[in-house]
Amino acid sequence: MADVKLSNIKKSYGDTPVLHGIDLDIKHGEFVVLVGASGCGKSTLLRLIAGLEDISSGELCIGEQQVNSLPPSQRGIAMVFQSYALYPHMTVFKNMSYGLKIAGKGKDFIDAKVRDAAKILHIDHLLERLPRELSGGQRQRVAIGRAIVRDPNVFLFDEPLSNLDAALRVKTRVEIGKLHKELGATIIYVTHDQVEAMTLGDKIVVMNQGRVEQCGTPLELYQHPATRFVGGFIGSPKMNFIEGKVAAISPEHIEIQLSNGCRSRACVEAGDLKIGDAVTLGVRPEHIEERSDAGTPLSGEVSLVERLGEASFIYMTLSDDTEMVVRGSGESTVTTCEHIEVSFAPHNAHVFDSNDRALRRLKPGNVHSTAQLAELKAVGQEAL
Amino acid sequence: MSHPSSIQRRFPWHILFFLAPGLLIYVTFSVYPLLDTLWLGLFQEDATGQRFFAGISNYQTLLLDAAWSEPFWNALWNNTKFFIIHMLVQNPIGLFLAALLSSPRLRLSNTYRTLIFMPTMLSVVIIGFVWQLLLSPIWGISEGFLYSIGLGQYFDAWLGKESSSLITLALISVWQFVGIPMMLIYAAMLSIPDDLIDASVVDGSNAWQTFWNIKLPLILPTIGMVSILTFVANFNAFELVYAVKGALAGPNFSSDIMGTLFYRTFFGFQLQSGSITMGAAVATLMFLIILVGVMLYLFVVQRRMKRFQL
Question: What is the average per-residue pLDDT within B15-21?
């Protein structure tokens, strides 16, 4: 059993803090994805867990043991690097066996281990090759294989797919998912790609500027983003934001006077909000419909239409110059410069207060969660 | 009627035009002197200064006549020792310094780099003169220095003894030129991606194992190049011995190397009269020795060494 527990982990380089106290509980066998824009500290956090950098303060436990001062090799972890970091002068076999050899394992043991891992990853025919003779996808497998042979409790992946082309990325993503099921090990996976995060993670940790913004299952993040940042980060295309002021408050919903002059309802709990407070309304492109009677109507001019076949992304500008994206149907006949009316249902609206905190939604965004997941995955595929 | 093929068959004058300046300089200052030297080695001069073709008799004299062959083999063996000392001392120290410099924990590494490289930029004559003064048993400071740290009884007139003069000269040369292997290896080490080192650390290797198993194999091509540069420079060396010990490379020719032997043969020194043709023969042998060494490196060593894309 290897639960990973981070308590108030801080890291600073000189006087520059990069991580401001991270708390995280990772259960054995969980697939946790750290996601965030570049520079948010997610890779640093992974390197701290790996032991490649020193933790400035806080406590890191893997299993029952506090590992703050243990070297990487004694933490029971294995890491897959973004650049794969295969030793260029060693064959695939030697690359995969290097760690075991350093650990002083017997020849037969090493041989069996490497061949087992190679079989799982379908690279058993490549064992005598040098890394430069392999394709990107094959190198990736070797890098994963090198991690597998060490039988770690925790796998650390640092953006492992970003050097692959789009088609291979999707394929490898699926395989990493399967591998996780097969090995049953804990995986901590860093990526900047929210589609990877949504599709792979049991739990997603959204990071922003050295802090954990929100932590939860993919659907929790999608349906109940805790902050404006998470709302904008999860989902593709991005959630639309419209500035406004609270105009009326009732137990079922609040009414917002939007900056373009419209008035909109949103099914959220008002909490401490008072009439006149500045808020931001968030609504996802896929929840806006190309008709004016679904709820709050919005009108604007179309600036661009991206046709993807099964859907069209309609970019429109509201009267107050707010930019919006609408996910229209594939058959949509809208053209650039056209003036259109769209609308969204109040229960699909998100509301963020002036501190960018989300107000609690009264109804889940959608009727059925599996249907929602399917839709989300469809959106993800398009984004690739 | 112009035909496409007739245009293609025209002599490519422009290629010649652009090659000419470089070719001209190379032929004038490199190819011609070399060929002329090889050619000159096949002649002899009589008492009147008349030159006549003598075949390989110069080489026979040089290699078989005891009056000539003894100094020749002595110089060649000394030169080999000179080279071995460089390989055993200069390059390992250069490697060690490069490894230290590339350590991210080292502060002021740029300062060290500059200081260590400094002697390389000085003239060999100045280095030779300075060390001659430092090591002088009469007014040198090294004796006092050794006494002050309690090692005074080990002081000796190293440059003046047959047994130690060559080694001392070689070490002076090592001191001066250690910056070159250091810089080349340092550059090679910097080009090793950090991820590789991290991967090796995660795999459980300590600093020494990382160096031995990962870094060293990746900088081997550079070490090979450093070795061949050392070889060529050592077998062409002359100035340091000349500056410190003079053309006689004393005591009793114990620091005589190919460069000083050539100098005495070609220009003459004290009782020995110079011979242009004999000098040319010595120069030719020096050229051949270096040629063989470089060929061995290129065709035996370098072929087995793989360059790895990092």
Answer: 93
Helix (H) or strand (E) holding A46: helix A42-50
Output the six-digit token pair for A316: 């429109």
Q: A118: which 2 tokens? A: 């190679």
pLDDT for residue B133: 93
pLDDT score for A363: 61
Is A79's CB within 8 Å of B209's CB? no
User: Which CATH number applies to B89-304: 3.90.180.10, 3.90.76.10, 1.10.357.10, 1.10.3720.10?
Assistant: 1.10.3720.10
Answer yes or no: do A52 and B214 touch at CB < 8 A: no
Closest Cα in chain B, distance from residue A154 (Å)? 12
Nearest chain A Cα distance for residue B305, angstroms = 10
Q: What percent of chain A has pLDDT over 90?
A: 49
pLDDT greater than 90 at residue B175: yes
Pairing, β A16-26 against β A278-283: unpaired
Find out whether the peptide bond into A152 is cis, omega within 30 degrees of 0.
no
In the numeric block, the tokens 């003036």 are attached to A339
Domains in chain A (CATH in brackets) are 4-228 (3.40.50.300), 229-383 (2.40.50.100)
Say if CB A258 and CB A243 are below 8 A apart.
yes
B residues 153-212 near A, CB within 8 Å?
193, 195-196, 198-205, 209
- The H or E element containing residue A314 is strand A311-318
- Per-residue pLDDT at B2 exceeds 70: no
ipTM exceeding 0.85? Answer: no
Distance from CA of B124 to the nearest CA of A (A): 39
**Mean of all residue pLDDT scores within chain A:** 88
At position B6, the amino acid (one-letter code) is S
pLDDT digits (tens, 9 = 90+) for A231-250: 999 988 899 999 999 998 88
pLDDT digits (tens, 9 = 90+) for A140-178: 999 999 999 988 889 999 998 888 888 888 888 898 888
With 80 as the cut, is the pLDDT of residue B9 above it? no
Residues A202-217: what's their mean pLDDT? 92
A10 three-state secondary structure = strand
Distance of alpha carbon B221 from the chain centroid:
18
In this predicted model, which residue has the larger pLDDT, B80 or A65? B80
pLDDT value, residue B104: 77
* DSSP H stretches of helix in chain B: 4-9, 13-26, 32-40, 57-64, 66-85, 91-101, 109-121, 124-135, 142-148, 165-177, 179-190, 194-202, 207-210, 216-235, 239-245, 258-267, 276-296, 302-304
Contact B306 A81 (CB under 8 A): no
Nearest-by-CA chain A residue for B214? A87
**3-state class (DSSP) for residue B5:** helix
Asked if A155 and A117 touch (Cβ cutoff 8 Å), the reply is no
For β-strands A4-13 and A16-26, DSSP reports them as: antiparallel
Please indicate whether, in this complex, the C-beta atoms of B202 and A77 are within 8 angstroms of each other.
yes
